[in-house]
Design brief:
Layout lengths: L2 H11 L2 H13 L2 E2 H7 L4 H13 L3 E6 L2 E6 L1 H7 L2 H4 L12
Antiparallel strand pairs: 1-3, 2-3
């Protein structure tokens, strides 16, 4: 991975709203953008801006079903970037969880 790719990923993480989006995706799993607007209390246009940054950084994945887009945390990427302590914030509680 190049320094530019790392910079893009860490810039994506350096925003409170994007961290909230990641946290909510972690807690809920695959989530429709229509539901995320209510969860994070943000208009869809602003939410789409933040989702694109996270998507371009590879921190989330997107699946389109009909006219709706569903987003999910890219757990592999999050686990590779963050320390065990930080990644626990973005991992659902499970038997294999670090927490």
């Amino acid at each position: 991975m190049s320094f530019n790719e790392y910079e893009q990923k860490f810039k994506a993480l350096a925003d409170q709203k994007r961290l909230q989006i990641l946290y909510e995706l972690c807690q809920r799993g695959n989530t429709c953008v229509c539901d995320l607007t209510e969860i994070v209390d943000m208009p869809q246009s602003k939410l789409s801006y933040h989702l694109k940054i996270l998507l371009d950084a590879g921190l989330i994945t997107k699946e389109t079903k009909g006219t709706w887009s569903y987003y999910e945390l890219n757990s592999t990427e999050i686990g590779a970037l963050l320390s065990e302590q930080l990644c626990c914030i973005f991992r659902p509680r499970a038997a294999d969880s670090c927490c």
